[in-house]
Specification:
The complex is a heterotrimer of chains A (275), B (258) and C (152). With 275 residues, chain A is an alpha/beta fold. In chain A, 39% of the residues lie in helices and 23% in strands. In chain A, helix 5 crosses helix 6. The N and C termini of chain A lie far apart (65 Å). With 258 residues, chain B is mostly helical. Chain B is 86% helix and 0% strand. Chain B is built from nine helices and no strands. In chain B, helix 1 crosses helix 6, helix 4 packs across helix 7 and helix 6 crosses helix 8. Chain C is an alpha/beta fold. Helices cover 24% and strands 32% of the residues of chain C. Chain C has an eight-stranded mixed β-sheet, with no helix packed on it. The longest helix of chain C has 27 residues. Chain C is elongated, with a radius of gyration of 22 Å. Classes of the chains: A alpha/beta (275), B mainly alpha (258), C alpha/beta (152). Chains in contact: A-B, B-C. At the B-C interface, helix 2, helix 6, helix 7 and helix 8 of B face helix 1 of C.
Chain lengths: 275, 258, 152
């Protein structure tokens, strides 16, 4: 990728993903409504927001699995929305995505799961694949579990194996979909540490989508809060905590009612009850 | 009234878009088979799951259907004193009709529903998505081998079904009811033609194989990724496959033997 | 090892399919390997085919020696023209052979039965048999019997 104009280059250097004017609707419900956001290169970015706000959808949009109704999603300077099928599959080799459920292939062992992307995309001899798989499994602390089947793993281990599989091809970008959901405190601590370590050791750009505010803020360099299809707050965790915006405050402090109402829009309670 | 037309129009659009999607899906998958050692391995694995595991139900049903045909045929033919024609009746019925049709119905129930549920679950547990995100096309890696396994398996199962059925007819007709074995075979051979009957039957089963596997993998791939969605998709697979097989059988019979 | 056993069973499965198909071909439909052997054509004219159809058997002394390959109407004499393919190795049918349409059993299929005469000359490709007997028409016989034209 060659950039002629120096201005563009400056922009590219600081952001790995740049989304402008994103519109996306599912059925009649608008999920994104002209959202703009930047994800800095080499940092851990947390995207937070109430559930059902389209955080997972955002990751799928970045990965090109679904197309937005309008808007640009620049990934390393190239628009994902304009990729052809083949280009998309090539681009995805540089992206790792950790799914909420781990999404391990249930008919393959732990070892084969981690080896899967290597076998699919490289022509490495078997002994080299073995070395890489063991290295990646060692990095997540599960080298001893290589012969287990996914059904024999606990939730936390499943996610760690999935993480090992995600980094098997040494991606530039890792997308984490709710990495902390449904984890016990120890597993959560392990994952928090792994995400931070991997990001710094491999020089990755990490994006994690979560509604676990404490954990997310504790590891991220940059946080983005989304509500109502828009970005409502952005910045380093310390800046966000100082924010005066009532929405950001409500979200960070976990208040039940506020700008994001407790009640789903409905008619007057009294008239509803009395008919 | 207007509401009614709107509803009809909307469901019409929905059906045609589903048909279009499934057509594109079939196109991408059929030509997505990997023609190398890895692709062959995947195909063999699916042939095992789709074909070998369906063998027991096919053999047992074939045997019993052949036996019943001989029994029923004998009781009718004996009135006309032409019970030696029982072999010809069993063979023609099996080779032309029951072999391809019943094998396809059993295939839809045994292998088709399993394919749908498996693919639907892979989708629900995000395995297909994660494969996509790894830059591996699930149409090539997951769908194509299953589709081709179905294509290849169906005619084989139909041939085995018919052959076992004839054997069942032989057991009942000759060993039990005492039809002379020589005329049992001779009548059969003089009335069954290889091209007209056996090959046309095979063509039928190839068509059924394509349709049943297509429906099964598409329903799985297109299913709603929830437990209810998978159960609906599995039901749809069996219902749609059975109806298409019976409908197509009528069409093909009209063209081939009409 | 697991993959290997799967490969073997799939191989056996394919083999079973092949055996079943050959069984259907050879034993059920009576397709013989030499059915494609060379043939030559002879013709015969009949007044009444009585239900003889294409693919019908042509036999000599009960042995199948060929099959009916085409049936057409000869418009000049308004009779049926039957084209028969006779196996090449049956090359000594005398020129004065008689062709008759017969029925296998009382209600069975119609076939052409040839009986040879004493002529030195033999039928070759393209020849026509003129001495023929049409099908025995059951309805006609019963009709004649009922109206008293013939009596037992």
């Amino acid at each position: 990728m060659i950039i002629d104009r120096p201005m563009d280059r400056d922009k590219l250097l600081d952001s790995y993903i740049k989304i402008t004017g994103l519109n996306f609707a599912r059925g009649h419900r608008a999920i994104f409504n002209g959202a703009n956001l930047n994800i800095p290169r080499g940092k851990v970015t947390a995207i937070m927001g109430p559930s059902g706000i389209g955080k997972t959808t955002l990751l799928r949009l970045i990965g090109g699995q679904i197309k937005p109704d309008s808007g640009e999603i620049l990934l390393n300077g190239r628009d994902v929305t304009k990729f052809k099928r083949r280009e998309l599959f090539d681009a995805r080799k540089k992206i790792g995505m950790l799914f909420q459920s781990g999404a391990l292939f249930t008919d393959l062992s732990v070892y084969e799961n981690v080896a899967f992307p290597l076998r699919a995309h490289t022509k490495l001899p078997e002994d080299m694949i073995r070395d890489i798989v063991l290295m990646k499994l060692h990095a997540v602390g599960l080298r001893g579990a290589r012969d287990l089947m996914p059904s024999e793993l606990s939730g936390g281990m499943t996610r760690r194996v999935a993480l090992a599989r995600t980094i098997a091809l040494d991606p530039e970008l890792i997308l984490y979909d709710e990495p902390f959901a449904g984890q016990d405190p120890i597993a959560m601590g392990v994952l928090v540490q792994l995400i931070r370590l991997l990001n710094d050791a491999l020089g990755l750009t990490s994006v994690l989508v979560s509604h676990d505010i404490t954990e997310s803020l504790s590891i991220c360099d940059h946080a983005i809060i989304i509500a109502d299809g828009q970005v409502i707050g952005e910045g380093a965790p310390s800046e966000l905590r100082k924010s005066e915006s009532p929405l950001v405050k409500q979200f960070l402090n976990g208040l039940p009612d506020g700008p994001v109402p407790f009640h789903f829009p409905a008619t007057n309670y009294r008239t509803d009850l009395l008919g | 009234m207007v509401d009614f037309f709107i509803k009809v129009g909307r469901s019409g659009l929905e059906y045609s878009s589903a048909l279009g999607r499934s057509g594109l899906f079939l196109f991408h998958s059929v030509f997505g088979l990997m023609l190398n050692l890895k692709g062959l391995r995947l195909l063999v694995h699916q042939l095992y799951k789709v074909g070998v595991l369906s063998l027991v139900i096919i053999v047992v049903s074939g045997l019993f259907i052949g036996m019943v045909l001989a029994l029923q045929g004998y009781s009718i033919l004996v009135d006309y004193g032409s019970e030696q024609a029982v072999g010809q009746m069993v063979a023609l019925t099996l080779v032309r009709e029951l072999g391809p049709v019943v094998a396809a119905l059993l295939f839809a129930g045994r292998a088709g529903s399993a394919l749908t549920a498996e693919i639907g679950l892979m989708k629900a547990t995000e395995q297909l998505s994660s494969m996509e995100m790894m830059g591996v096309d699930p149409l090539k890696r997951v769908i194509a081998p299953r589709l081709w396994a179905g294509f290849i398996t169906m005619p084989i199962l139909a041939a085995i079904f018919s052959a076992v059925g004839v054997f069942g007819g032989l057991l009942v007709g000759v060993d039990w009811l005492g039809v002379y074995e020589g005329s049992f075979w001779a009548n059969m051979q003089s009335s069954v033609d290889f091209k007209e009957d056996v090959l046309n039957g095979m063509i039928k089963s190839i068509v059924f194989g394509v349709v049943c596997s297509w429906i099964a993998v598409f329903q799985g791939y297109d299913s709603e990724p929830t437990s209810e969605g998978i159960s609906i998709a599995t039901t749809k697979t069996v219902v749609y496959s059975s109806l298409s097989v019976l409908g197509l059988d009528f069409l093909l019979t009209a063209v081939m033997f009409g | 090892m697991y993959q290997r056993s799967i490969e073997i069973t799939v191989g056996v499965f394919m083999l079973l399919g092949f055996i079943a198909l050959s069984f259907l071909a050879l034993q059920v439909s009576g397709l013989s390997m030499d059915s494609q052997k060379d043939t030559y054509k002879i013709y015969a004219q009949f007044d009444d085919l009585g239900g003889l159809s294409v693919r019908g058997r042509v036999s000599l002394a009960g042995v199948t020696i060929g099959r009916v390959s085409a049936i057409s109407l000869d418009k000049e004499v308004y009779s049926a023209l039957v084209e028969m393919e006779i196996f090449q190795d049956v090359d000594s049918l005398s020129a004065d052979s008689v062709a008759s349409i017969q029925t296998a059993g009382l209600l069975g299929e119609k076939y052409v039965s040839l009986s040879v005469g004493g002529d030195e000359e033999v039928l070759v490709d393209g020849d026509t048999i003129f001495d023929t007997q049409s099908a025995l028409n059951l309805e006609k016989i019963i009709g004649a019997f009922a109206s008293g034209d013939i009596s037992l």
